[in-house]
């Protein structure tokens, strides 16, 4: 299965927000990029980019790097990149926003 790669959202809402940001690049700007999230995860990392409002309404960014495919919020073992992204989008999307993409090394962001 493939997920279309979209650019990062321009709006940062107040409160807690989590984002798996897309850092892949597209060599052909006229074609739509798709990302295969079913590849082998061995030795690949997952980067969670957390964007939230801090003191004085300034945007704060935190980075968490994991080697497993466990949800950082509830520790559900999703096993695959696709499973982790689907879990986060369906289980935690009431208060948080999630997007995903792979970098040139196959790591999920």
TrEMBL record:
Pfam families: Zn_SUZ12. Residues 44-93 form the Polycomb protein SUZ12-like zinc finger domain. Residues 1-37 are annotated as: Disordered. Residues 8-37 have a biased composition (Polar residues). It comes from the Eukaryota. This is Polycomb protein SUZ12-like zinc finger domain-containing protein. It comes from Eucampia antarctica.
């Amino acid at each position: 299965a493939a997920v279309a790669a979209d650019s990062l959202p321009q709006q940062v809402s107040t409160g807690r927000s989590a984002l798996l940001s897309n850092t892949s690049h597209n060599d052909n700007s006229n074609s739509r990029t798709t990302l295969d999230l079913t590849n082998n995860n061995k030795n690949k990392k997952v980067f969670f980019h957390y964007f939230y409002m801090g003191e004085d309404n300034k945007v704060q960014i935190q980075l968490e790097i994991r080697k497993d495919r466990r949800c950082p919020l509830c520790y559900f073992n999703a096993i695959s990149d696709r499973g982790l992204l689907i879990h986060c989008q369906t289980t935690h999307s009431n208060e948080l926003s999630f997007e995903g993409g792979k970098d040139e090394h196959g790591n999920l962001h």
